[in-house]
From TrEMBL:
Gene3D superfamilies: 3.40.50.880. CDD domains: GATase1_2 (cd01745). One of its GO terms (molecular function) is gamma-glutamyl-gamma-aminobutyrate hydrolase activity. The keyword Cytoplasm does not apply. PROSITE patterns: GATASE_TYPE_1 (PS51273). It comes from the Eukaryota. It is an enzyme of class 3 (hydrolase). Keywords: Glutamine amidotransferase, Hydrolase, Transferase. Its EC number is 3.5.1.94. Signal peptide: none annotated. This is Gamma-glutamyl-gamma-aminobutyrate hydrolase. The lineage of its organism: Eukaryota, Viridiplantae, Streptophyta, Embryophyta, Tracheophyta.
Amino acid sequence: MSSSDLAAILPGVIIVSRRSLRKNKFVDFVGEYHLDLIVGYGAVPVIVPRVAGVHTLLHSFEPIHGVLLCEGEDIDPSLYEDEETNLSKEELEEIRRLHASDTAIDKEKDTIELALAKHCLERNIPYLGICRGSQVLNVACGGTLYQDIGKELSKNFPQEKKVVHMDYDNYDGHRHDVKIVEDTPLHQWFEESLQDNMEIRVNSYHHQGVKRLAQWFKPMAYAPDGLVEGFYDPDAYNPEEGKFIMGLQFHPERMRKANSDEFDYPGCTAAYKEFVKAVVAYQKKLNIIKRVPTSLKLDKELEQKRNVIVRSFSLARNLYEGGDNKRQLKESDLKPGAEFLESNIALSVQQENRLKQMGATVRNASSYMERLKMNEEREKLARAVMGKMTIEQLSDLNLFYHMMGQISSDMLEKKQLQNVSAIML
Ligand SMILES: N[C@@H](CCC(=O)NCCCC(=O)O)C(=O)O
């Protein structure tokens, strides 16, 4: 097999770059350890540059088989805080002085990464968030962050109880304890290194962290000050089946012995290994689903029907765009398209708008417009009601729909796979 064949079959993992200043100009970068591990376990890292406007082009990176988000600046607090911060002006200034490179917010990166995280959650695409990537995941699901751990979480702790989460004087050498939660993937990965106290020592390069963990996540590890150091979605965890949604506040890819590439623990690479396993399985599922239409053989009668509907849509689109005016159109030419539309109920507002743009509503426009209006009114009503709900109520609702989305996409997948098996038999 040639290397170009291999490239065509390997799954793609999206990673967003970070902007940095080098010799008076901006450059984009991604830490090499992440890239090495992704390639090493059998996927291809696809770097999305954080240049202005890229968030509008994310569909061009499809098919996306996995998303790995890693380090970066602080997330814009307006994306998770709906109240004014309790921090004083002086405290905020001190935070900016202490953590200058983190506090320079990058709104473009925020937009790109939140869009990618939500995309993964909606489509069950494997997601691994390291450090900032875990913070992005929590915010995407309605969780919140400490704007500064030192000023908010550990402010009132006695000195000996404070955990150092950022040590600029011993940047890569610094470690602190974390307690691993039983029966979680982290427990499984680090099992052979764990003593009775269930602790390992992890690195730490952050001054923010999870404040309120989004409801559908389960914590996997805690620092001694109570900070959540790892979490995952237990309903979306099964690497063999392409399911993996996880955030780690520490950097297992970087936990290596001084001046060596040797990892601190054998479990350090497991997050990447299992993530890529899920990515590979996800790609397989996607390919099976994509193959269904091509393996479906339409009989002659169905094929004729399909052609009539396609022609009807094409005539309607032409009419709408003002082209092909010379020809006299008959209503019967447009009827099959309109009937097809009517029989396909429950279109979303966006889908309906799109079809409207295509001129597919030429016939029976009034009933169609009524439906469109009703959907718009429903959306308006839902927005008004939800606007009055508390954060907790919205989180509950979000959790409920996430669960329903998960169940329906599992069922859909099962049925599609059953269809494939039926066709192949
Ligand atoms: N700004 C956030 C996230 C910090 C982060 O991603 N750190 C990773 C390592 C950065 C590096 O070594 O360059 C926070 O401070 O919490």
